[in-house]
Amino acid sequence: MRLSVISHSQQPWEAVRAYHVIRGKAGLSHARTSCFQSPSHPRRADQRSAVMTIISCFASYPTSPAMSYELEEAKSGRLKGSNSMSSLTKETSLEDPNNASFWMPGNYQRTVKRTANSFQACNDVVACFQERARVERQYAQQLSEWSSKWRPLVDAGPLYGSLLQAWQCFLSSADRLSALHSSICCSLVSEDRDRVKTWQKETFPKKMFCGFQESQEFENGFTQAQKPWTKRLKKLDKARGAYHKASLKKQAARDREEHARGNPDIPIEKQRKIQEEKEQAVEDMKKMRARYEKVLEEVTRYAPRYMEEMESIFDQSQEEERKRISFLKQTFLSIHRHLDITNNDSVKAVYSELHHALMSINEQDDLRWWRNNHGPGMPTDWPQFQDWNPQEKPKNVQKQIEDRDTPERSVMIGGVKVRALYDYEGLEIDELSFKAGEVFLKIEDEDDQGWSRGIKDGGAEGLYPANYVEPAL
């Protein structure tokens, strides 16, 4: 029988299903000699039923929050792009880098708008992790529903002993994980969201009508710093235009002079006039150049002061942005701390106890228990010769038959360790008292009245409510 055909990429329940099919085929091939398919062996049918129940149980196990979120988002198409994050999208500019420079007039607007963008970013962060909180809540609810659905089926199933306890541990682990993910949801909503909202309200005071006070202050500061600079740039641009125009005029006059020189068709008087126009154009060009250089020198002298004033306001903006980045960093770290279940001691304890329960599965103990409770190990009264005693009353044969048909409480060989969930004070002399968290042995299974029998380390023995304890790992 080969099981290596099962791929490592298959889900655990698929591997169990494949194993079950292979075992079924093997059993059919030996139907004449094997008891696997025989109606006289209900235990085999119970095993097949248990395998199919395990497959159904873990096939319906809820997916993790991240996976369920991605599946839901993929179905709705929201992973392809969302308009809600437009404020955080980087825009590619095809403009001239010089024209897009911060130092050019009006280009401080990107820095001013950063305040409004940061405000919107806070809204996006809150909306994003509110949705994650809903995912956590839904996952917690699915875990709880899964556990509640399968607990009675598992308890009433055909498994027994340590194997049953291991299966039950999966369900109790799901309940504890459900509580954990519910607490994550509460943390994301009550702590992180409220912290961002409170900080946002304090950090971004708004104007009476619209906009933010911080944006208006930076707008006014940059405008005042750029006003004299813009005035000088306009003057410089005008001087440069005049100089370039004079240079063009000079070049045209020089071209006319070269064309007229040595041309017999142009009178001498006309040539002299063209030469005078060229000389005048050269003189005008020199004046415009001197004026242009003077204005440029004035602009150059003023540049350090302009840069100092602009940087002073920009540094104020940077400081405010630094505070915002620092706050959001701490917020993200807080969210990470709430979501990072890999370092959560409760989660580690859940999976540690679950692993311990799985490693505690002992086929020899389970087989011994079955032998002692349902097999050759069961006690019986073998027929013996009994002498007649005239003083004994004749036994009622019908009463013996009825007593034989009355189901007896199942006695556990060695007992099973259980832990008390609640305090219980015995009301009758044959009842066992204990405190929550106390560990003792269960020596008889639950009867039809809901009572089990247990014994403490000190030897105290008695009945107790079966639903007051859980298996102790």
TrEMBL record:
Domain of life: Eukaryota
GO biological process: cytoskeleton organization; plasma membrane tubulation; regulation of endocytosis
Predominant place of localization: membrane
Subunit-level organization: Homodimer. May form heterooligomers with other PACSINs. Interacts (via SH3 domain) with DNM1, SYNJ1 and WASL. Interacts with TRPV4.
CDD domains to which the protein is assigned, alphabetical: F-BAR_PACSIN (cd07655)
Occurrences of domain F-BAR (ranges): 92-366
Stated role: Plays a role in endocytosis and regulates internalization of plasma membrane proteins. Overexpression impairs internalization of SLC2A1/GLUT1 and TRPV4 and increases the levels of SLC2A1/GLUT1 and TRPV4 at the cell membrane. Inhibits the TRPV4 calcium channel activity.
Protein name (record): Protein kinase C and casein kinase substrate in neurons protein 3-like
Subcellular location: Cell membrane; Cytoplasm
Positions of region (Disordered): 247-279
An annotated GO cellular component: plasma membrane
One GO MF term attached to the UniProt entry: phospholipid binding
Domain SH3: 413-473
Natural source organism: Albula goreensis
Composition skew (Basic and acidic residues), residue ranges: 252-279
Keywords: Cell membrane, Coiled coil, Cytoplasm, Membrane, Phosphoprotein, SH3 domain
Membrane topology note: Peripheral membrane protein
